[in-house]
Design brief:
heterotrimer, A mainly alpha (335), B mainly alpha (295), C alpha/beta (403), A: 335 residues, mainly alpha, two-stranded antiparallel ribbon, 2 strands, C: Rossmann fold, Rossmann fold, 15 strands, 19% strand
């Protein structure tokens, strides 16, 4: 790590303060529905968690998965099935979804990590297409019509979640829990090993790390947390649909992550929020939105490869005199 | 005669159709393979360029009264030039990065092209007449094959063979192969590698544009005609072995036939079978059927 | 006498006051209509901008205000995704003070939104979709299925074709609620009239190459190939059938064809096809007048769903006016009491299950020689009277229907 002038760096206290303000705002938000629509807020939180979970693989393990839609959407279907057809209570249904995708993620991992880079991405895509096909053909999913209406169910069999604000706090708690876990994983010894593998796999291997096992666990964790996001979205909207398992969703989450910044823990969340805002407030423009998102994608790749948070970190950490271009090693987990 | 409960005729018919689809796959995956071989870019925009080719043929017909045959030359040229511009102003900047950035960049281009055509041309598509000299059907005994479809197979074979000859037998092809193997060394021998890259990208997407023109009379000319195609073609190139030109063309035809068979026995799975094959191939023969193991 | 007069005056003024009180009962001081349509996808030419303009025309023709409050029209794109549509509807009802959602092309979206409308107790009027669920298992006092449905299509085109001698059928079906529902309905009609269903090939939404499905249809040796899809899918299927010579030995029955589809196919390819539509622009002076105004705004002729968007918006606004409030239950009651006679239909009524009952028509596509110019595509074959055009209430699975 390079040393930075302290004055320009964000101190941990400031960071903590920022998170506390954000938390306070999020806690207050459902009481001011005229300012921001709580369900939209919940949707953004789901995508934020999804993007950060995805980035466990992309940013921190250097593994590109082009099949994360299988986890996000797959979990939604399982949760939906548990709620609608089995009548489980909400937390069990969500847990079932997460468990399913964790196992699915491990399976993806076992198959995919035999190859690297673009081949690996293609294997995940192929596997995800097969998952898509399975859900398309299964009778309980309603195929193209989506699975609906799904009851929101009762938390612990007691608290009725059909009320939006009660649900809001459940979603908020789950998303914060999920993000905390992501942060914990990234900044743990396990996360260090993942980055070591990303930087130089043979070296990590020669140091005695069971590289394959680390990768598979990373797959499983990323998939499980993506599944949590998908399950929550299903409960919020009372619906599970093919959109969430389609490969476009896998592309979307890559875009969110790139835009937000893949070399940080919470950058992808910012990307997710920005893309959601764009889709939400400009959807009247129809196909123009697709064009604009495409342009953003291109700009991200050409000009802002660090992503929003990466650029901010970069600006904050740049030494005025000798502007150092950050190398890959330098950009590790910052926030 | 029945084969697994399917009349012999129906089976032969589906295999024939599979060959027609395979012909498109072959031409498309050929371009994709050449681009990956030299540029190390996974051109996700290949389907979008395919669509662009069809639209150019359609638009020059509508606004300039240009017929199908001239369009068959014009459209690939226009698409090629568009590709060259994109390479020159965007792709070139990211060659030094991880190839995944190429995937992301071209994915962005897909959104722009498809969205743009949707804005300006609507989405329900435009009919494109089969050229007058190609109408009618031939009775093959087991099926009525529209002449145009037979023509598509023929053209695909000619184009694939032509491309293969250019790469393997000409000086230009030799440069190309050299630059694929050792770019720095080739540059040192006085060959302008950057221009070679630009031209290769242009030629690769021009092939996609050509396939678009071929497809126009069969499919509707519509903005999303290439959108799902790209991941199938992509899978085919991976099955054939990324960068293997011959491999991708042969695999394209083969996969077309497999898809045709899937349509007979389990039609819903026909869009998925290619991914199943891909997963199997990658697991059993990771570099693809015709690819070499990379270091 | 004097006293009783005073009493009467007082009573009258109380009544009058009560009535003025009611005019204030418009939530958020605006009557807002949302058009939830496919603005950019495979069905955007059938619904899309045309649907939005049709609803706007209705709001303008109504005078721009109802009960002294502004009529506002908003629109959104559901992208043919049930989840997107349902989320938008939820948001509109929760925060956008939208009182009624119109159009809803795409059966999957319509079903999802119907569930939301039922939960939120707000109105939807379905014009773009055919799924029978809207007036059956998903029915509510707040959902009206206005223009057409799968039953009416089956009993229009399907029945006519069987009666002409098409006894064995093979279906090319688009693989979601719309296509499967349509195939089911037509199969029932075919069997009821002594016909036989030889099989079906299901294809995904937005299929471009139908050749293999057409081959399956040919191999089935059925007399009729029933095209249970619409828009670009139907157009592609019909072209592929012609290309492979299927039309030599077999006949096509397009089960839901729109005027835009005929336009896309071109008359040489489409001539002779039978289709069931509730409305055609060239029926009478009223329809022509509407079509002319619509054409000036949109640049093409309206189809039946767009005409129904206009007509149903008018009906809703009239019901709000008659009820003196936009309170959903009161409006629902009024709409089920009204009779609609306008350029869309004569004497149309809404049944308890939400089905808007009106005459349907069987059309045939003209030959190129018969057509006098652009958009002159259809000639009427017969009228399907309202009482035969729709599912009888006795068959309804709607829990509002008392049995």
């Amino acid at each position: 790590m390079l040393s930075f002038p302290v004055s320009l760096r964000v101190s941990p206290a400031m960071k903590r303060g920022f998170f506390l303000v954000l938390l306070a705002l999020l806690l207050a938000a459902p009481f001011f529905p005229q300012i921001i629509y709580p369900i939209f807020l919940m949707k953004m939180m789901c995508f934020a968690l999804f993007a950060c979970a995805f980035n466990l693989l992309l940013g921190h393990a250097g593994i590109v998965s082009f099949g994360h839609a299988a986890f996000f959407g797959g979990s939604a279907y399982i949760t939906g099935y548990a709620l609608r057809d089995l009548g489980w209570s909400t937390e069990l249904a969500i847990l079932a979804g997460v468990l399913f995708t964790t196992i699915l993620g491990a399976a993806f991992g076992v198959l995919a990590i035999r190859r690297q880079g673009i081949y690996l991405a293609m294997i995940t895509l192929a596997l995800a297409q097969m998952v898509y096909f399975t859900f398309l053909q299964s009778s309980f999913t309603g195929a193209e019509d989506g699975m609906q209406p799904i009851p929101r169910g009762h938390l612990f069999g007691l608290v009725d979640l059909s009320d939006d604000s009660r649900l809001y706090f459940l979603v908020l708690a789950c998303v914060i829990g999920g993000l905390w876990l992501v942060n914990r994983i990234v900044n743990s010894p396990f996360g260090e090993v993942l980055r070591a593998i990303r930087e130089h796999e043979p070296r990590a291997r020669s140091m005695g790390y069971a590289v394959d096992r680390y990768k598979i666990i990373a797959f499983a964790l990323s998939a499980g947390l993506s599944g949590l996001a998908g399950s929550l979205k299903c409960v919020v909207f009372r619906l599970a649909a093919l959109t969430d398992v389609h490969w476009h969703m896998s592309g979307d989450v890559i875009l969110m992550t790139l835009l937000g910044g893949m070399n940080s823990v919470f950058g992808p969340a910012i990307g997710a929020v920005l893309i959601s805002l764009l889709r939400h407030y400009f959807d009247a423009l129809g196909a123009w939105v697709t064009v604009v998102i495409g342009i953003i994608f291109i700009l991200c790749v050409l000009v802002f490869r660090r992503g929003v948070l990466g650029e901010i970190n970069h600006l904050l950490s740049r030494r005025p005199a000798t502007a150092v271009r950050p190398s890959k090693e330098e950009q590790n987990a910052q926030i | 005669m029945d084969i697994f409960g399917i009349p012999h005729q129906a089976l032969m018919g589906q295999i024939m159709l599979g060959l027609v689809n395979g012909a498109f796959y072959a031409v498309l995956s050929l371009g994709l393979a050449i681009i990956f071989g030299l540029l190390r870019i996974v051109n996700f925009a290949h389907g979008a360029f395919f669509m662009l080719g069809a639209f150019v043929a359609f638009l020059v017909g509508r606004y300039f009264g240009i017929g199908y045959w001239p369009a068959m030359i014009i459209a690939p040229l226009v698409v090629g030039v568009a590709g060259i511009l994109f390479e020159r102003f965007a792709l070139r900047r990211i060659y030094k990065l991880d190839p995944l950035y190429g995937l992301f960049l071209t994915f962005g281009l897909v959104l722009v092209l498809e969205g743009g055509f949707r804005v300006f041309m609507g989405s329900s598509g435009n009919p494109f007449p089969t050229p007058a000299s190609m109408r009618g059907v031939v009775d093959l005994g087991f099926m009525m094959l529209p002449i145009y479809r037979g023509f598509v197979i023929l053209m695909a074979v000619i184009v694939c063979a032509g491309t293969w000859i250019v790469i393997e037998k000409t000086r230009m092809g030799a440069y190309l192969r050299a630059a694929t193997e050792r770019p720095e060394l080739t540059q040192a021998f006085g060959i302008n590698v950057p221009i070679l890259l630009t031209l290769t990208y242009g030629a690769g997407v021009a092939l996609a544009g050509f396939a678009g023109v071929l497809a126009a009379p069969i499919q509707h000319v519509n903005p999303s005609m290439g959108s799902d195609l790209v991941i199938i073609v992509f899978a085919i190139v991976v099955i054939g072995g990324l960068g293997s030109v011959l491999g991708s063309a042969v695999t394209g035809l083969g996969l077309g036939v497999i898809e045709g068979l899937a349509k007979v026995y389990y039609s819903e799975a026909s869009t998925t079978v290619v991914f199943l094959v891909m997963a199997l191939v990658l697991l059993l023969r990771p570099a693809g059927l015709f690819g070499r193991e990379e270091s | 006498m004097k006293n009783s007069l005073r009493l009467a005056v007082t009573a009258a003024s109380i009544l009058a006051f009560g009535a003025t009180g009611a005019t204030a009962q418009v939530s958020d001081d605006v009557v807002r209509i949302g058009v939830l349509a496919d603005m950019s996808g495979i069905y955007s030419d059938l619904s899309g901008k045309g649907a939005v303009e049709a609803v706007k025309m209705a709001a303008e023709d109504f005078g721009g205000t109802v009960l002294g409050k502004k009529i506002d029209v908003v629109f959104a794109d559901h992208l043919n995704k049930p989840d997107v549509g349902a989320a938008k509807a939820r948001e509109w009802f929760d925060t956008g003070s939208v009182d009624m959602i119109n159009d809803l092309a795409n059966s999957g979206v319509a079903r999802a939104v119907a569930a939301v409308a039922k939960e939120k107790k707000r109105h939807i009027i379905v014009n773009g979709a055919s799924n029978m669920g809207i007036t059956n298992e998903l029915c509510s006092p707040y959902a009206i299925h206005y223009a057409y449905d799968a039953y009416s299509l089956a009993h229009g085109t399907g029945k006519a074709v069987v009666e002409q001698g098409g006894k064995t059928w093979f279906f090319l079906t688009v693989d979601f609620a719309f296509g499967i529902g349509l195939e089911e309905q037509v199969s029932k009609v075919v069997r009821a009239n002594g016909g036989r269903v030889a099989g079906a090939a299901r294809h995904p939404l937005a299929t471009t190459d139908f050749s293999s499905y057409v081959l399956q249809a040919q191999a089935s040796k059925a007399e009729i190939i029933g095209v249970a899809s619409t828009g670009a899918d139907a157009v592609n299927a019909i072209r592929a059938a012609a290309e492979f010579g299927a039309t030599k030995n077999q006949k096509l029955a397009a089960l839901l064809l729109w005027i835009e589809d005929v336009h896309a196919l071109g008359l040489p390819a489409a001539q002779g096809l039978l289709l069931t539509n509730a409305w055609y622009w060239d029926m009478n002076d009223d329809t022509r007048a509407f079509a002319k105004r619509f054409n000036e705004r949109v640049g093409k002729m309206p189809n039946m769903a767009q005409a129904a968007d206009y007509s149903s918006t008018m009906m809703y606004l009239n019901a709000v006016k008659a009820a003196g409030t936009d309170e959903p239950d009161a409006v629902s009651k009024k709409m089920r009491e009204m009779k609609v006679s306008d350029m869309f239909t004569k004497n149309g009524t809404v049944r308890v299950d939400g089905r808007f009952v009106h005459d349907m028509y069987l059309w045939q596509v003209k030959t190129p020689a018969e057509s006098k110019g652009p958009w002159d595509y259809l000639k009427q074959v017969s009228t399907i009277p309202a009482e035969q055009a729709f599912q009888p209430l006795s068959d309804s699975k709607c829990d509002l229907v008392k049995k």
